């Protein structure tokens, strides 16, 4: 399979990790929940983990690659106060200021 489309995801947070298994068919995510999140990768998409916090979704169908990347991102979307979560590599999260205490 010749991969033409790529989508890189960055996982930010203490203890947040990703692991791809069985030739890019399963993706396991540790996202601070009491359980691991297990995602089955669609047939037209492959998943690679370069580091424990960098995930690459590749494939020949742009719509399926981007849709699976969005499904991974929705498991823990980035929060605006600390910037933790799963975000695209080229995405910029604008942090909000927290509540000021007296």
Question: What would you say this structure looks like, in words?
Answer:
This protein has 1 helix and 7 strands, in the order ββββββαβ. Helix content is 12%, strand content 38%. It is mainly beta. The model has no long low-confidence stretch (mean pLDDT 90). It is globular and about 60 Å long. It has one domain: Outer Surface Protein A, domain 3 (Alpha-Beta Complex). It has a 4-stranded antiparallel sheet with strand order 5-6-1-7. A 3-stranded antiparallel sheet has the order 2-3-4, with no helix packed on it. The relative contact order is 0.26.
List the helices and strands and how they pair.
Blueprint: E1 5-12, E2 17-21, E3 26-30, E4 37-40, E5 45-51, E6 54-59, H1 62-73, E7 85-88
Antiparallel strand pairs: 1-6, 1-7, 2-3, 3-4, 5-6
């Amino acid at each position: 399979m010749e991969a033409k489309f790529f989508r890189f995801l960055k996982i930010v947070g203490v203890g947040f990790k990703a692991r791809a298994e069985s030739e890019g068919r399963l993706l396991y995510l540790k996202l601070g929940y009491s359980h691991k999140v297990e995602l089955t990768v669609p047939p037209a998409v492959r998943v690679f983990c370069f580091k424990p916090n960098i995930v690459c979704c590749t494939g020949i169908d742009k719509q399926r690659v981007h849709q699976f990347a969005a499904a991974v991102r929705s498991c823990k979307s980035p929060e605006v106060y600390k910037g933790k979560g799963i975000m695209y590599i080229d995405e910029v999260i604008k942090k909000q200021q927290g509540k000021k205490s007296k």
